[in-house]
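REQUEST ID: PR-0412
SUBMITTED BY: lab tech R.K.
PRIORITY: routine
TASK: structure prediction, single protein chain
INPUT:
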Amino acid sequence: IQHPIATLANTVTYTVTVTDSKGCQDTAMAVVQVTPTLKVDFSPDTVCRGEWDTITATGAITYAWVISTNVTDTIDRDSILIQQVNQPTQYILYSSDGVCSRIDTFTVPIHELPTADADIDVAVCKGNEIALNGSGGVNYSWTPATGLDDVTASAPVAAPDTSTIYLLTVTDNNNCKDIDSVTVTVYPLPIAKAGN
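STATUS: complete
OUTPUT:
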């Protein structure tokens, strides 16, 4: 066969022998090198609604992204910056390792944000304490730490010396975040007087 077709999984060395009409022969060798299939990974594979994020591709040498309406970065690089994601968007990436190339089309799912709730504003007399009541997430972070017994608790005990606005950041299982605040008003103690 003059032009055989081979489907290969590994590198193979072929020997071809040619015989002309006079019976003369010549032999040549050809090495068909099989390179591993180009595999490209993307991260992150999800984003949070309304946030900025960077999608990074790995596994190739050169990359070219097809620009869509919410991509603000240049295309000839391994990552793109997307802004204020509010709906799933399809991305197309052309990549090459110098030998093999591929085209990937993918959609990054969007997760809804959690709803942070730091509860209602409260008041306390100076020197006393009160429990705050945060909800809406899996992980909690309160700032400032001043006057709190545990800044990672959903319901820390607060005993500030002065009126303080506490910010609560909640994070869900998808690492999406939301923020709420609560004001702890501290009343000064009355001054007791005895006698005349």
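NOTES: The mean pLDDT is 86.
REVIEWED BY: pending
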